[in-house]
Structures are given as structure tokens and as C-alpha cells.
Write a structure and sequence with these properties.
CATH topology of the largest domain: TIM Barrel
CATH superfamily of the largest domain: Phosphoenolpyruvate-binding domains
Bound molecules: phosphoenolpyruvate, magnesium ion
Number of domains: 4
Distance between the termini: 42 Å
Radius of gyration: 34 Å
Structural class: alpha/beta
Mean pLDDT: 91
Amino acid sequence: MVKQTVKKAAKKSAAKKTVKYIYSFGAGKAEGNGSMKELLGGKGANLAEMSGTLKLPVPPGFTITTEVCTYYWNNKRTYPKTLQADVETNLKKIERETKKQFGSEKNPLLVSVRSGARASMPGMMETILNIGLTEKTIPGMIAKTGDPRFVYDAYRRLIMMYSDVVMEKAAGIEPKDGEGIRKILDGMMGDLKKKLGVSDDTHIPAEELIKLCAQFKATVKKVLGSAFPDDPMQQLWGAIGAVFASWNGKRAIAYRNIENIPHDWGTAVNVQTMVFGNMGETSATGVAFTRNPGNGDSHFYGEYLINAQGEDVVAGIRTPSPMNRWSANEHSKHLPTLEKTMPKVYKELDKIQQKLEKHFHDMLDIEFTIEDQKLWMLQCRVGKRNGTAAVQMALDMVKEKLITQEQAVLRVTPAQLGELLLPAIDPKAEAQVKPIATGLPAGPGGACGKIVFNSADAIKLHEAGKNAILVREETNPEDIEGMRAASGILTQRGGMTSHAALVARGWGKCCIVGCGELEINLSAKTVKMGGKTFKEGDELTLNGTKGWVYNGALKMLEAGEGNKNLVKFLALCDKVRVLKVRANADTPEDAANARKFGAEGIGLFRIEHMFYGKNSDKPLFILRKMILSASEDERKKAVNELFPFMKAAIKDTIKAMAPYSVTVRLMDPPLHEFVPTLPEKQQELAKALGISMAEFKERAAGLHEVNPMMGHRGIRLGVTYPEITRMQARAIFEAAAELLKNKVKAVPEVMIPLTCDAQEIVNQKALIREEYDAVVAKTKVKNLNFSVGTMIEIPRAAVLAYEVAQEADFFSFGTNDLTQMTFGFSRDDIGAFLPEYLKQGILEADPFQTLDQRGVGMLIEHAVVEGREAKPNLKIGICGEHGGDPESVEFCHREGFTYVSCSAFRVPIARLAAAQAAAKDVLAKKKHK
Ligand code: PEP
Ligand code: MG
């Protein structure tokens, strides 16, 4: 009984409690604050912060919350019942503060209505200025300002914006190209300027503007079928509705899709007193950054326009003047700075920008207006910046003690860091063209060059000092030299972890794979895409970061070699991170490169990669002999022949990486990839094996597997042909022993691939141990140590991790195969269906690029827990391609991995991602305290 009464009372009070839909700000006060971005949007929250907390001059106004936007869309574009009264109350508040009245004949208040979502969506939603100007209020405005030209200019701007944004767009009218009301009115204004012989809007005299406004209104009525409203309240509600409607405009939706901004956030609406930067020579408007967003320079930076409204700066009709000497460029250096023209206001603004930076601890982008020498702040938000600037600012701000090291590493996104590491297409040039084809972004950066269709031609072009784009249906080991020589690689087939992609990424080479729309004609040496046929020698530009192909040669930017700030910033990341970062490297050159990028060891040395690339002809030939051997005897002979090459490759690489460790993975060759396809190579091999071509073909056919990815590879090869494991173990230990003798630190970690059962490890470890004992006995090197671990890349091994860990000294997650086998998606064949999965939203991301944390991640988590249960100090790493993906690196940090390993060129990104993951931890803990 008592309980029921309490419940009823609670219900009653809940029903009574009204939701607050509007937050006011201005005159040194505010109901909201900067932390309320979810409810007030970025703009509204910061206006409140500037007004309430910082007491900066902000024109009074109010913010209608994002919840109203959600309500509006969930309730057939209607508003909560109380909203109308709330708007009226808050309008009254502004009237009291400004001592003006909305709709008054004598002393009219004009307002602006602007959008403002949680995340900035620049230019994607609507703004309407000068609301409240009507036939009735115009005379009052003229009397107050004494400037009819100014008032009618404001009126024509209102008609232009309102008819376009409220009457046409928000009403869902879709005019044909060039027939929209804005275009028509712009055209009329252009004609008038031509007739009058003036280039600047401010030179149109008042009487002409009066006539123009009348013509505008007549045209609006004729084209849109309804009259431009002459009632201030109708204008206000029309504008509010248009801003809410613009949340689901085409532009806004597309932008959110690209930027991954949730569609259910909604926008807030800010209604604010108009201040005028276009009231003559003592007024101005401008946009500024507290530091230079293009290079990170710590000087106040920006531009302004005398006698203008904000839209004039954005529209770029007039060349803005520089704020100060640091802001001048080639086009503006002759123009007067704000510092000179309005020194007092500039000083005030400079003080404000310093205050803002100290308060927000970041570089801010600010908008301001000067109305007759009085400064008003209209907006501030964290400023967008490029990679160079982001790194410079992060370093400077730590030095200035404005931010901590943890905050600094979070100030640079992996994409921004990537800008400093690779050559790229000049974004300005790229913005002006459309791609002609798209594929998977396998190797990042940009490349531009002439089309070639085979490796030999790529090499020839490279040797002639020219850039080649190697276009292939798919790549195989025979293409390696050509891939190395080419500036960029474009293939028709393949996925993100296909051979071409892996190798290209390892070299930091621009590469696009799985570009299904290519129609290659090898004999004619042509390729068709985007409706055009390209010949050998025609030029293409690739954006490997996005997977976009462009016709012709676009302007390129050089990578930031020798960039001192980059080195300093990465050193800062190293201080913050907990995860170690290793590289996947297969040659001494790769190892040296990886060191340059900051790798702390090799997490994956794929032995079979020694058969690719320079000077690999001989060992590749012997490997092929080994693969095509029919008897144990034949195979043993080939294995022994291979031994010195293998030992040399391992020794040189360990030496290049010393004193850091190298994880040498036993051979995991996809056998079919190594059978030569060229007839002359086949004949040569048959001859060396002393067999006929017929027999060769029979043996090659015998190697054919229906499912090579699940076939005779990895540890299975070692189980069936123990002599192959023995030879590799011997090569590893002899290499290490010889290095130790020469005082080079060498502690090899032997890694077994493709394990599915602990017994496989037992089997192989016995062979490895015997070889170790033999090498120690032979070389007499006593301090030769080693460990034997395994890759976890088959779901069964992850499930049985407790048992596996009892036999293994370390785990390294091979997430390429683990993803392949968990999904049942062949990593080489995803091109045929994955794009459709992504398009239809069945999967959110390519699981071969970003670790599938829900599925594959669950297996990993289980394996980590079970593995450490069996061996608390088990070393755990990842060496699949995900090791260089920032989101996946964060996952590895959370799961308590020891290290991540990725291709050399991605090491800096992994260092940053690891630091960011650790920084988030530290900052979250601080917040908790
Ligand atoms: C893996 O499967 O994740 C891995 C690193 O091995 P590979 O790519 O060589 O199969
Ligand atoms: Mg694998």
C-alpha cells in the first residue's frame, strides 16, 4: 500500500517535471556550459562557455536543444508543446538585455538562426541572418542606423537566404540545375551590378537596393508560389524549422556517412542577436585561429573584411585582409592588417584568443564581428588542422605546459601522422577531379605514373627514371621486382591481405587491389575503366589511402623525410605507450628500415619471403625444386642446397635488428604460388630435376589443392616433411651462434605457423630441440638461447589456448588467417562479395583491415585469458595486418598484449596508436579520481 502511494507520487512529479528545451546565454551569463555539447551542440555549448564562464562579449541569445531536433524528426516535423512559449519567453529575455524589441517599429531586434551539432559539420546545415526585418521594422532600422543602404542590403540578404533555405529547400522543392531561387536571385543581383558598373555589393546605392528587394519579392512569389513572409514570428519559426530540416538534408547525411557521425544525434538551433559587421568602415567581420592551422606556428592567425557580414568571408567574394603580419600571404600582403586599422579592437581580440586557448587547452577557430568598433564573439570551436600543424602544436603545447604528454599524443590522429609519412596527392588538385575507378585501399599514399602491364616494363621505366603504375589482374611472386620498381600498383583481383597488398604495404608502396571494374587486355596492352580505354604509357594517379584511381597525372606532395618534429613527437608517444611495437620484416633492408621507423624487434620474419625480390633467383629455384620433389631423397638434396641461403638470410636480418629480437617463422609457403607459370622457367626446373616436361606437369598437378589456404601449409608441412623443419632450425641456430661468436646479440624466437593442436608443437619442438643440441655441440657456443612459440591463427588453437600455452613460450595472433577462418571468408577472394556486404551495411568494416572485435576479438580474448592462466608471463603479440591498424592496436592494449607487429611503414602509426590507447587509460583514471 505504502509502496503504491510512493509510486504514484513519483509518477505525478515526473509528469509535472517539464523538460528544459532552451538554454539562454549573453550579458556575462549562461544557463548552459561548454561540457553540454550533446544537448546544446558544439556551437551552443561554447557560446554558453564564452558568455557564462569566460564573460566574453557574446551577443545575447538562446539555444534550442538537440532533443527538440530528435523530437521534430520522430513526430512528423512537429515541436514539443511547450516550445512555442519557451521561445517567446527567451526572446523577451533577449529584448530586455538588448533593449530592443522583436518586430518593433521604432527599435527592432534582429536575430540570426544557426545550426550547431555535437560534432562540427562545417557548411552542411543552414544559417539565416537578419530575421525580423519586415516592411514595418525597416523604417525603424533606418532611423536607428541612419543608413538606408545598409538596411536594404540586410533585407536583400534575408530574402535571398530565406527563400532559398526555408521556402525552397526545407519545403522539399527540388528545382532543376540552375533554376533554384538562389541562383535566380544571384543572377538578378549580378545583372544589376553589371548595369551599374560596380564589382562590390557594398557599392550598390540604396535606391537601387530598394528596387531590387521589391523585384526579389515578386520573383520569389512567382517562382515559389508563395509570398516572402512579412511577419517576424513567421520568419523566426520558418528559420528554426529549416535548420532542423537541414539535419537530414542530402549534404548533411552524406557528410555524416563519411565522418562516421551518428544520424540520431540531431542539431541544436542557436537564435542570437544580430550584430553587424557591415555598418560601414568602423565595422568588420572575421575568422581567426589561435595558431596557424596550416603549419602550427604559434602566432594568432586569421583574416577579416571591413564592412562585411560573415557570409562574405566564407563566400570569398572579396579578398580578406590579414589579421596581422603573421597572417599575410602572397595575395594579401599589401592589404592593411586589423592590427593597424583597429589597434584597440585587435588588442582586445588578441587577449580574448589567448584567454580562450588557456581555457580550452587547444587551438581554437573563432568567428567575430566588430560593430562600430565594438567587438563581439560569435563562435569558438576546436580548430581543424593538417598533420604538420597538429604535430607542431602538440609539441609546443607540452612545452608551454598547456597540455600533458597524454593529451598531446591524443591531439594527432593516425591519419594526420600518416600525412607526414608518405607522398600524397595534393589535396587541392584531388578536390577538383572525380575518380574513374575504385578498389580496396591496400597500400596508402599517392602515386602517379605511366601505365605498364608487366614487371619487366615497370623495371625498364624505373631504370629510365620514370614512374610506373603496374596494372595487373593479380600479382604473383614473379611480379615482385616489378612491384618494387613501380610507383604504384593497381590490380583487378585480391583483398586487403592478398599477396600484393601485404607486400606493397610492407614497402610503404601505394597499392589498390580488387578494382573489379578494370578490363585488362594483356595482348593489346590496354585497360578499360570509367568508360575510357587506356594504353600502355598513359598516365594514372592512385590514391592508395582511399582506393581511388584518377585519369592523368595529378600534382603530388613529397613525404616528410628528415622531419625533426616527427621524430620528437614519436619519442613522446614512446614515453606514453605501454605496448611494444615490432615490425614484420623479411630482409636486412626491411629490418634496417623498420629500425628507422622505431621498431623494437621483428614480430614476424616470413622465411618464404626470402624467395621474393632481389638476388632471389637461385634460392627460389631451389625452393621450387624442393616443392616439386617426389621422394624424400630428392627433397633432402634440395633442402641441403637451400640451407646456406636460408642461414645467410636469417643471419643478416638478425644482425640488422640486433640487439632487438627476431621472431623467425617457419616456412608457411602457399605451395601453388611457387610453381612457375612461365614455360621457360618450367623447362629449366624440369631439367634440374632430371625429369620430362610431362612428369613435371604431373607433379605440378599433384600439388594442386582445391583449398590451398586450408591445405598443405604451415606446420603441416613440417609434420609431413620433418627434414624441412630440421633444416630451418639448423639455419636459425647456426646463424645465431655465429653472430654470438662475433658479439652480436641474437636470441632467436622460433615461431610455428598454423597450429591447431598442442601436439603439433610437441612434435615440432622435438625436432627443433635436437637440431639445437647438434648446433651447440658443433659450434660450442654455450650462451645460445632460444624460445619456441606459436601463431594463433586457427580458431581451434584459440579455443584450446590453455593446452597450447603449455607447449608454447609465446603466442602471436595471426589475425589475417584467424579472420579468414573465423569468418570463412577467403582472404584472396573477398573482392567478389565484401564490397556488397559493406554497401548493404551487413558488416560495418572490412574485417581484414579492422579487427572484428565482436567475433574474432572474442576468440582472442579467450585465448589471452586461457593462455595466461596456463602461463602467467606468456608473451603475447599480434602479427597480422591488424597490428598496424589504430583501432585494433587499441584493442590489443586493452587485452594486455605485450607487443604489436606490423609492416615497417606502419610502425610510426602503431607507436602513436599504442600511445593513444595508454593515454586514454591514464586520462580516464585521472577523471575518476
Ligand atoms: C596471419 O595469418 O595473420 C599471418 C601473419 O600470417 P600470413 O599472413 O603469412 O598468413
Ligand atoms: Mg597466417
